Amino acid sequence: MARTAAIIAAAGSGERLGSKIPKALVQLAGRTLIEHAFSSISPLVDEVVIAAPADYEESFRNLFGESAKVVTGGATRSTSIAHALEVVSPNIDFIVVHDAARALASTSLAARVIEALNDGEVAVIPALPVVDTIKSINSDGYVTLTPDRTNLRAVQTPQGFTRQILNRAHQGLDRNPDATDDAALVESLGEKVKVIEGESRALKITTSDDLERAMVILGLSQSDEVRSGVGVDAHAFSSDPHRKLHLACLEWAGEVGVDGHSDGDVAAHAICDALFSAAALGDLGSNFGVDDPRYAGASGATLLREASNRVKASGFEILNVSVQIVGNRPKLSPRRREAISALSIALGGVEVSVSATTTDGLGLTGEGRGIGATATALLIKRAVRSVNVGSNT
Q1: Residue 385 — very low, low, confident or very high, per pLDDT cuts 50/70/90?
Q2: Coil vs helix vs strand at 299
Q3: CB 6 within 8 A of CB 166
Q4: Global pTM exceeds 0.70
């Protein structure tokens, strides 16, 4: 099976958004743009490389731990991608290049790009038909040409390439130094670029108006009640060598489990805690206490389903959750896609982001005596929308 990496260009400034921080760190519905982009593309790839603005590398590393490689971006987008290419693992076959500014591009769009690569294409880009009349003008502001828009397309990301083609394209960067996307570099090699149907939600967020459009796409309004919560859980590894390890709703063969009233799934427990915190429903202990025999040995998936049901019963909708697993073992990266899928299924299809980190030898997790997790959850209670019913008289 072809191995795929994602490169996310995130080195742009936030000036046109009126922000003093880089655009990728601007918040949209309780999460940064880079977190939205990472969440949508990470379930499909084997590794992620982020090109970050200079002096902000640690901010990005703190967000994703060891689940993403972070490099310093360049003065241009093409330079940033070239820097990221230098650290892509040697066993990668396909590379998907994405812009953090297109934070709402869906996982299904990226999946269709990768599917086309698996079908034999060497370069694949999503695009939408151009609906406006386009004019070409001269330096004095006069129209010189009105091109036929029938064959015009507005190009989006993520864009997919074979590794060989993308490497060649960036080695020949001097042929097209002002290229605004990687497909233009591939075109300059004389290679075919396949265009597939894009999606309206993959808009490029550049201005405050774009942020408002993104809120509409997410189905949010100023009158909605949006809440976030944080959850933490940790367990020590068991002295029983036969105790099985359950983490992120998966069983990890060959790993010793942790002690706990339930199955000890710290990722699932941290998410439950974050959900209860956001909905003001108490915490993990008050909902699934050790004195309640119903949850003795309960799986992480069981607790997630119950937590989700309680949150929904209180009038909230789960927009997304994110969990970072903290520990020296097990190694998450080979099963990160499975973990994302298992957690999402347990929560009824909610968007889930999973990352991992260590603590440099410090504390329970760093010393290898246990494992922990920190999670965040974003909930919404939608305001009642008024409906105008027209008269038939």
Answers
A1: low
A2: coil
A3: no
A4: yes
